[in-house]
Amino acid sequence: MTLIDGYLTANRKRHAEAAGAGHHSEAFSALFDPTTFRHIERLGIGPGWRCWEVGAGGTSVVSWLAKRVGPTGRVLATDADISWHTSAARPPVEVRIHDVGAEAPPGGGFDLVHARLVLARVPDREQALRSMIRALRPGGRLLVEEVDPALQPLSCPDEHGPAQQLANRLRHALLSQRGTDLAYGRGLPRLLRAAGLCQVEADAYFPLTSPACAALETATVQQSRTALTAAGLATESDITDHLTNITAEPLDLATPPLISAWGRKA
Prior knowledge:
Strand order of the largest sheet: 3-2-1-4-5-7-6
Shape: elongated
Number of helices: 7
Radius of gyration: 19 Å
Mean pLDDT: 88
Oligomer: single chain
CATH topology: Rossmann fold
Low-confidence stretches: 1-21
């Protein structure tokens, strides 16, 4: 689970979890889709391309890919949970349950394999990366995107008052609950080169002061409320005050940088 997935607790009601996941998905799309689309366009996507969207988790990227590849192309969208797939599963899109860290890659010789906010939460990341590269045709492109919370761990980089201090304290509390590598994103270029890709490049996108940042922060804190209070990392008052501050005053909220790394299979 990534930092901005939130920390879902076992005693949440199922419908509340679904609502929170929807809020996260919308915020992810608003924040990161433009960056993802820009990179994929630079890689040359066009009609007839065969694309594998790994850990899709929603329809925004899948639908965009389908428009770019057209009726002669193919978009395979895989995830462990495909409950979101109803509106997306029509040609050229195929939706399939798949565990990228444990199962063999799908065949087809893909022109593009893309994974966003996936590898950091896969137990066997090396296997997952090998699987994605193995699925590429010669000359095919891999684009992997992960946040790097250790690179920028603050909710409010401009900490100039009590509201910003509280926001940053809660962000540190959330980070302390993580079980994944907080600095995984910055290592992606090295990992892609080590896996044999060529023409490896990378950049970082750091959203700051976006309405989507506020929406993502709200959804994450709300979902993490029980875990934070049960662990003694925050009080109910802390969380209520922070959620009020998000709507009552400009906090200039930020997310961790999104590291995008890409390369070509020789």
